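Schema walk-through. Below, the input block comes first and the output block second. Nothing else is stored per chain. Lengths vary across the set, and this one has 537 residues.
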Amino acid sequence: MRYYTNEVAGLSDYYAGKSEAPGRWVGRGSGAACLAGEVSPEQLASLFEGAHPVTGESFGVGYRVRPGADPVTGWDLTFSAPKSVSALWGVGGGEVGMAVRSAHDAAVQAALDYLEEHAAFSRQGKAGIRQVDTEGLVAAAFVHRSSRAGDPQLHTHVLVSGRIRCGDGQWRALDSRALHRELKTAGMLYQAALRAELSARLGLRWSEVDRHGQAEIAGVPERLCRHYSARRKRIEERAAERMAESEVVLGRALTPEERRRAYERATLETRTAKVHDDMAHEGLHDRWRVEAAAAGFDPDDWVGAVVARPVRPQEPEVEPIAAEALAELSLRASTWGRTDVVRQVVRRMPPTTGSADDVRTVVEHLADAVLAERGVVRLAGPSVRPPADLRRRDGRSVFEPHGAARYSTQQTLAREQHVLDAARDGRDAGRAVASKPAVEVAIVEGGLGDDQASAVRRVTLDGDAVSCVVGPAGTGKSRTMGTAARAWANSGMTVRGLAVSAAAAGVLQTEAGIASDTVAKFLLEYDRPGGGTGPYR
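--- output ---
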């Protein structure tokens, strides 16, 4: 997803592709505004200027932005098929190609239907305190066949207007918070729906679903997929350059968020004019077949083996999927929202579920089943049914944003209480108290700032059994803990670093200079006979 601004793309970008299908109006809000059928360039321009594409009626108060900022008038949501799916579609031809395209369209619609239910809201009142219902999204969909490098890449751009009509008939801004919360989930739902549609139509088999909810078709040559990934290769190379440059300047590893932003900038920087082909739809597919054969992957040699008889839909087993999803949620986070539940459920949806709409329906049911589990706890006060005039269609108060509720499990809360009890009982326990001279020498040698020095004195001199140092990325926590470790070591104590992953343990050891292992390895050694008698006892 990207914001729609003048900086990112001109509207003509969606019409420049020759032989591409024309855009079409999608979304319940479009239907309510009497927008249907094909989208003309003039209509699209009017929409993103804040006016009705047909009547010219103003869509409410204009967009307010800070000086010098680009107005965000909408969003470009991109639903892109996995490379193996695009490769099969690009060279399969005939009924195979039509089946892939129909499956893609159905999966996109299922994802949009999900967003209509969970992200099509607006806000009213001071600071947008009330989240209110709307008539639905106003959007235009454009199906494109190729990447900017000319490789087969079946994908749909859904341009969503930033204006939305509320229940009282007034046009207001779309609540971007709700949209952002659900975008990744909708993308994962698209992938699961696509697998189900293609399995039902073509009997395809799939690789293991990754953590992003994506899988590849088994049997499509991996080297052919790489051959058709010229655009991705350029982006990854530029992203690697940007990240390396940033890490040199900052003197540290980038955070996941910083890496994501570097990848986004690399995507824009490598965004060249799209390769447009004068060939008709069939001619372009013929060209891709010739390219595949020239690369050593003649479609006649493998397409028939990939495509089998359509599979009969089967209803998924609810209990195992719900149990696995809940176990994964509990392992990865202490609290989570409904959208996190949906993501875990979607990853586990069998490709034999049926149609794209069947997938969406079953996913919603399974998500509710997970939240209804006996051990799940909703982290909020007692739910009081609000009066009708302060209640949305979902039954919640307008003062409670849809999907914002957080959940945990009784087991997780019990673990957290155990940690809190240990911290409380361990106050002033006289644990790991360093000598003051050693602490001050370590602080001077470390060249710490006032806040960092204060943190070192606190953890090395207070004697608490449990101490926490909290700070954003890049504020010098590793350096601070390295200084504390030297103070303890110079006071005759043994220091060992522990982290939840091997990568994190490596960073701790490199940046803080502390011999480090994973928590799992430490516990394994500790539980061995005699393991608890060493210096860490």
